[in-house]
Write a structure and sequence with these properties.
Strand order of the largest sheet: 8-4-5-3-2-9-10-1-11
Largest sheet: 9 strands, mixed
CATH superfamily: Vaccinia Virus protein VP39
Order of helices and strands: EHEHEHEEEEEHEHEHE
Number of domains: 1
Oligomer: single chain
Helix content: 10-25%
Distance between the termini: 31 Å
Length: 314
């Protein structure tokens, strides 16, 4: 329900509080994650599954995009703010599953050269090396973010290693090629909903076993994207373990809409938030949602005219 203006003590009129849009089933929002989250009702979502933009790895060509902050500290602070608001809209027994990748220092190069095997890595803008880091240092962003969220009030319950057998090749000769990312499980409260039976995995000798903390999931190509998207097989165990049919699942960085696809398949409701209009159109097409059904809150602006927008990785 829309919130009324509240008169100030001196009789002047205060600014109107953001209206809370009514949720009648699965909903796709176009807008900034934090702006939209502030308008959503408290406690409506049973689970959050998401993969925010990684720092300094992609330029999506959108003004104020998360991931191209001038410092790593500012990037982490922005994500902590987003997930603090996500915690507000999460049910008391709710869970956050967060996938985040790592990166290396730039050596103060303001660009990233193209790679023959991975042309999407090329960038014309790149943050400077953070203070205190050396050239070629691994940034350790996943754990820095995990500890920052833990300090902000989240319960850090598990670190899952996403092992990618078909990981993108790297042309490196001075370290092992990376073939994993992290998926963190956070909860809002000490006690929370977790259906271990629904998320069991096949055991080596046959039968089923409790879900382990290393998940072997291949990256998957998608016809509408230039590189691999968030795999459904990575999302599904999170949703099955942390929700029941009919529950809402939130993804504040919706990308191509993979979380929505899994929700649709598993009889859950989704609320997706995506800043990039091209990704919104891609997700809407994938989920068979009409353009008139997309709720737009604020307009995304191209930060550099002529920038070619990359397709989402989620």
């Amino acid at each position: 329900m829309p919130k009324a203006d509240i008169p100030a003590p001196d009789g002047t009129e205060r600014a109107r509080r953001p209206e809370t849009p009514a949720l009648h089933g699965s909903t796709l929002f176009e807008g900034d994650a934090l702006t939209v989250l502030r308008r959503l009702p408290a406690g409506f979502a049973r689970c959050v599954v998401t993969s925010p933009p990684y720092w300094g790895l992609r330029d999506y060509g959108i003004a104020e995009q998360i991931g191209l902050e001038s410092t790593m500290t500012r990037f982490l602070r922005r994500l902590v703010s987003v997930f603090a608001e996500a915690r507000r809209v999460l049910a008391g027994d709710g869970t956050l599953w967060l996938n985040i990748g790592d990166g290396y220092t730039s050596g103060n190069r303001g660009y990233r050269a193209p790679d023959r095997k991975n042309p999407a890595r090329a960038m014309g803008v790149r943050p400077d090396t953070p203070e205190g880091f050396k050239p070629k240092d691994l940034l350790g962003i996943p754990w820095r973010l995990a500890f920052a969220l833990q300090a902000d009030g989240w319960y850090l319950r598990s670190d899952v290693v996403w092992y990618k057998p078909n990981a993108m090749p790297e042309s490196v000769k001075d370290r092992p090629a990376r073939s994993h990312e992290f998926l963190f499980m956070f909860t809002k409260s000490e006690k929370y909903y977790y259906d271990w039976r629904a998320a069991r995995e096949p055991a080596d000798g046959g039968g089923m076993r409790n879900l382990r903390s290393v998940w072997q999931v291949n990256t998957r190509p998608f016809a509408g994207a230039h590189f691999a998207v968030f795999p459904q097989e990575l999302v599904r165990p999170c949703i099955l373990a942390s929700t029941e049919p009919g529950d809402y699942v939130l993804d504040p960085f919706f990308g191509s809409g993979t979380v929505g696809v899994v929700c649709r398949d598993e009889n859950r409701l989704y609320v997706g938030i995506e800043l990039n209009p091209e990704y919104v159109a891609l997700a809407a097409e994938r989920l068979e949602v009409g353009d008139s059904s997309v709720i737009r809150i604020g307009a995304a602006r191209c930060s550099r005219p002529g920038t070619a927008l990359l397709r989402p990785s989620r």
